[in-house]
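Our consortium's second objective concerns turning raw sequence data into structural hypotheses that experimental partners can test. To show how far this objective has progressed, the report includes one record in full. It was chosen at random from the queue rather than selected for favorable results. The single chain below, 376 residues long, was entered without modification.
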Amino acid sequence: MKLRYITIIGFCFLMLSCKQNAAKEKVAERKEQKRAKFEPEDGEVILFIGQENDALGGTEKDKNGYLDHFPAPGGFTMYTDIMPGVTEEFDGHSFTYTGLNGIYETADWGDGPENMSLQLNSLNFKNSALAIGLAIIDSEEKIASGELDPYILKMGTFFKSLGIRPVFLRIGFEFDGPWNRYERVAYINAFRHIKDKLDEQGVTNVAYVWQSKGFESTLKNLEEWYPGDDYVDWCGLSFFNNYKQEKMIAFAKAKNKPVFICEAAPTVTDWENDLKGNTGLTKKMILSNPEQAKMAWDEWFVPFFKTINDNPKTVKAISYINANWKDKPRWKVNPTFKGIDSRLQLSDFITKKWNEEVGKDKYLKASPDLFDKLYN
């Protein structure tokens, strides 16, 4: 009997020890899998909408955008720059950047009005995070050398003025797009310099996003452009008609980084002559056209949401572009965007389908506790 008692006690201690070891392993695993800055839990996705004032709506000036037809998203996307003196031309128009355009005052570089202060000062957006595309075209060497530090410092002051509102800063977005003309080494150095300077300034509410154009670049290409684990919080990509070519999700998984689909909308391709495996959308895509809306849903929205659902531990944020591209001077002759009107509210069919999908609990929208949630 005594031996049996000792055996039972020994077995209990063994079971307790196993449970303690298992618990320690789970704690170690959680520590090892610590989420990135502002990364939600697995299976959750922050819903952003972009990317101009009229596309967003929800202010006294703009009353027919996304926010006027749908619940407030978890974040909104807008743009600014550090490229003072650089001039861009498009379809007979031109715009000369002065640096930090679109933050405090309205600017229009051919893509519609940009003034993020309108949304930031609107109660409709008080519980939404902010994603910013920061263009640094033809300026990356000056940024890396410190010549443009006053703009970085002013931007840092702006970020600090936002309190705890999370900011996702896409430095030199679509770095691998030839239209941006970035030089690889200078770009990497500029990315690192901007983060270093903002860190020195004590900016704590910014996550740094490294965004690819989302097609053609191989894993090797992406590795060559990578600023490094210590500088990148999120990996990003654009998701348009050529999404089948993207390699960023696999790259991010290898780096243990979350993915932000920073720009997304159904666009067009000449599917009959396309050899790259793009989608089969027609030359024009206007969601107010029922036939085109149905095609857009089947050919683009379904694969878009499938990409999200197939990668619940990786794809953690998305930004849909709810814009009338075809009426913007910048895109008048662009082969991808010139015939596009991707405003969801134009189609009852798309609106219903969209609400069914993003109405799920997994999609994080504006709420009083969203910021606390994103700060882990």
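The partners drew two points from this record. The two ends are 53 Å apart (CA to CA). The longest helix spans residues 2-32. Both points have been shared with the crystallography group to help prioritize constructs.
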